[in-house]
Request: fold
Amino acid sequence: MTAGTYPSPEPVEDPEALRADEAAYRDLADAVRELLDLTVRTRVDQPERAAVATEVRALSARLSARAQDGPLGLETTSDGRLRDHGNPMVGMRNPVAPPLTVRQTGEGEAAADPFVLGAAYEGPPGHVHGGIIASVLDQVLGTVPAIVGRPGMTAYLNLTYRRPTPLGQVSGRARVAGTDGWKTTVTGELLDADGQVTVEAEGLFVVPRWARQYLGTPTGDAGDFEAPAEAGPDA
Ligand SMILES: CCCCCCCCCCCCCCCC(=O)SCCNC(=O)CCNC(=O)[C@H](O)C(C)(C)COP(=O)(O)OP(=O)(O)OC[C@H]1O[C@@H](n2cnc3c(N)ncnc32)[C@H](O)[C@@H]1OP(=O)(O)O
Reply:
């Protein structure tokens, strides 16, 4: 579970059954993630690869027996929160997601626990693709406004790539740098396995006009903000 989620207006009828269902979805995503990684790295011979492709298509046909047409949007979780299970960075149903876990680490601060970016995320040889880094930092920085009660969309995200990020274990962190009404400026960093900062980021996150009526009125900095208790984010 990642920080910054909001309570669902829908009651959870059978949390135990939903928890088991979530675990099965998570397990499927984990299995496909392993498949993604090995699809990139495999050196088995060509007939074996062709045979695997046939089997994978048969598995896709089984899943398509019951699949929704479009994206998932927000769904109610077993603990009564709203969650974007299809999110490509944190979504528990998305095998493309590394996946990240972003935790609140203090007042207006969040961190992505160490996680591994492997061969499927390669850009420069042996190193993480810059666009993947941007996605990771967008997610980590974007969680911070949500945990202080101003869940905003990214208006800009500026990155400074200080040094190449080796594939392998990475982590992230972010904190509020300033607030101005519905706008939250957040700074953060990506760190490599040695704890060295490889990329610095600054983002502006804006609560869209259409969403403001649901979030109360900001009166200045984060300390002055009164988010309605029932709509507040988790820790
Ligand atoms: C409720 C939402 C869902 C939340 C769910 C929970 C989230 C839980 C954690 C998720 C973490 C996700 C991390 C991934 C987040 C994405 O990936 S979001 C997707 C990428 N971003 C987008 O698609 C945003 C597209 N842009 C827009 O929709 C609109 O331009 C914006 C940014 C919402 C602002 O539009 P608006 O609501 O009409 O407001 P507008 O009056 O234009 O601007 C408001 C203020 O911001 C300023 N501003 C706007 N853009 C800029 C800019 N680029 N530079 C400087 N200032 C700017 C304006 O000047 C204005 O300032 P003031 O005059 O008030 O001082």
Residues 220-232 have pLDDT under 50 and may be disordered.
